[in-house]
Amino acid sequence: QVQLVESGGGLVPAGGSLRLSCAASERTLRRYTMGWFRQAPGKERDFVAAIDWSGGSRYYADSVKGRFTISRDNAKKTMYLQMNSLKPEDTAVYYCAANFGVFTYDAVTTTGTYASWGQGTQVTVSS
Question: Mind listing the pLDDT tens digit for each residue in 3-48?
Fold first, then answer.
């Protein structure tokens, strides 16, 4: 399994921006599909975005399309989530995840697909 560590969370007013990072311990991330999920208190962990090993293909949840951008730098073994126009409903713990497998919508939007998870970083958006 890949060891993943998220950072970049915090408190931000509505309309603000944050950039989350997910650093990996693996020697190379080039084979891995990676994704971001989030979990609000009392709710299930929901898909946010995913990116294939090359960075050429991405999927987003409808709720974040046009506001969030997922990217990766395989040389730095790091994935990012740029979050703009944040809303109070974006408040959650954000988790990054990695998996060595096919890149299909059904696969990457499912938590059970991912073998490795970070510990999460809190994002709080005030109204």
Answer: 999 999 999 999 999 999 999 987 777 789 999 999 999 999 999 9
- Radius of gyration of the CA atoms of the chain, in A: 13
Gap between the Cα atoms of 42 and 56, Å rounded:
34
Strand order in the sheet with 18-24: 4-7, 18-24, 78-83, 68-73
Question: For residues 26 and 124, what is the distance between their CA atoms, to the nearest angstrom?
Answer: 29
Vertex 126 angle, CA 86 and 111, to 5°? 55
Are 31 and 55 in contact by the 8 Å Cβ rule? The answer is no
pLDDT tens digits along 105-124: 999 999 999 999 999 999 99
